[in-house]
Amino acid sequence: MLMVNKKTIKPRKSFGQRVKVELSRHKYLYLMLIPVALYYIIFLYVPMYGSIIAFKDYRPDLGILGSPWVGLKHFKDFFTSIYAWRVIRNTLQISLGTLLFGFPAPIILALLLNEIRSKMFKKSVQTLTYLPHFISTVVICSIILNFTATDGVINSIITALGFEPIQFMIREEWFQPIYIGTTIWQQVGWDSIIYIAALAGIDQQLYEACRIDGGGRLRQLLTVTLPGILPTIVVMLIMNAGKIMSIGYEKILLLYNSNTYETADIISSFVYRRGIVDMNYSFASAVGLFNSVINLILLVSVNRICRKMTDNSLW
């Protein structure tokens, strides 16, 4: 009969003891985490309490709790508005256009930079592509307006070629291409950083094995490089899908005008005018809540699709 020495069996630590050991072991890491946690709690989680004004007729003198409930009134006001379909359509067109053309751009840039052997040239290209990310939106919009003006650089080239100048910023068909193109230009370098890091993490022995097997550059790309960064691509795709309905209004407000409302007016700019400028905070909260719900549905759906198709996902 097997005899077990009870003295050699250590008693299982309680949850509190395990937490105390974990905190003492990694105390400096948790101290560094505190500011990040406080940021999310104060600026993201606490404001969720204010979302209930989407179902109330909010009055500052009565406060959030004292304001009367109105149910889905503000949601109905938005969906029955003559501008609802226009702003939803424009938001989707700009977001999907940016995703379609902007998502592959940093991947392609990272792959091209990965093939450059000259370190000096590679760093120069990286610096030039990173810089637009750090330029403020106001400056970017000023550059766009100056370049597309009647006497701007672009129209000067057009007239030099013998064509009539184009009024880019007052013709509605040009607004979305200009917005999408400049957004991609501003973000492509910065967004490529994560893919460059993923490429650096690929085991070089895999490339060596592929070369020994007779694989050229294209085969290495298809069998080693792309599979190596696929998890990163999937995660970034899911995160981008989760913000399709969210476009900042700052750049839109600085570029659009009454002539381009039909293709430029999006949900956030509409909410800014109706909700913030007109001080209809309940309406703004209702539309913001609608945006958040749609983004959450898209995030969960795309995550599930990616998990089934590639075995890679956020969760």
TrEMBL record:
Alphabetical list of Pfam families matching this protein: BPD_transp_1
UniProt keyword Electron transport present: no
Protein name as catalogued: ABC transporter permease subunit
The UniProt record lists the keyword S-adenosyl-L-methionine: no
InterPro entries cross-referenced by the UniProt entry: MetI-like (IPR000515), MetI-like_sf (IPR035906)
Organism superkingdom: Bacteria
Compartment(s) of residence: Cell membrane; Membrane
Protein family: Belongs to the binding-protein-dependent transport system permease family.
Topology class, membrane: Multi-pass membrane protein
Membrane-crossing residue ranges in chain numbering: 28-48, 94-113, 134-158, 178-200, 221-239, 281-302
Gene source species: Diplocloster agilis
